[in-house]
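Thread: Newbie trying to understand structure tokens

Hi all, I'm a second-year student working on a class project, and my supervisor (Dr. K.) asked me to get a predicted structure for one chain before our next meeting. I've only ever worked with sequences, so writing a 3D structure as a token string is new to me. If someone could post the tokens and maybe explain what I'm looking at, I'd be very grateful. Here's the chain:
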Amino acid sequence: MHKQILIVDDDICLAYAIQSYLSSDKRKIFVVDNSRSALQLLKLYRFDLVISDIMMPNINGYELLAILRSDTQLCKIPVILLTAKGMTDDRIKGYDLGCNAYLIKPFHPSELLSIINNILINFNYCKNLQEFESLPCTSITEILYSSDIMIDFTSREISVLQLLVKGMMNKEIASVLNLGIRNVEKYVSRLLNKTKTRNRTELAKLSWSVSLRANDGTRTRE
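---
Reply by user tm_fold:
Sure, no problem. This is what the structure looks like when written as tokens:
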């Protein structure tokens, strides 16, 4: 599915130039030249990202960002601010208001594209991780079995992973599963080694991209 991106800039020539560069079969780019029009579109369509200039008449980029962050329906949309204002205080103001990135004009379009890709990847991962962590253990297990790519795990390793993904520390996992902390550390180490991941965050991310399965329903090896 393509991503929908909204560009808000009163320099319409620049906005269309950015639109031309970013447009692809994976991205649909909308352009408006003022914040009021942007807010109307944001109520009508579901956008994955907003790219906004700061220096605009009536409602500037800072004010637009503040409106978005105060709206429960729009507050989670990532925002990139584009501006000719490069002072540290200006950047701090943007980040304090909740922007995801701040790009100073003039900029190379490939830098903007790199920022966009990074934001969307991280945003989608965090969203998936939050949804994953909110699931009960039974639903998590169904997800872990659902992919065509399978990694061979014992049932105990699956149990440890379920709790690990929910944010539990080794001591908490040990208490829930009635294991020693060193045993939990051993299982976590096995999970990292088998999946070739480096930390718990990567393990959680892996759970959305591949399926993990216990060796079989009767196996008792630990």
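A couple of things are worth pointing out once you decode it. Residues 109-133 form the longest helix (25 residues). Confidence is low (pLDDT under 50) at residues 128-133, 135-149, 210-222. Feel free to ask follow-ups in this thread.
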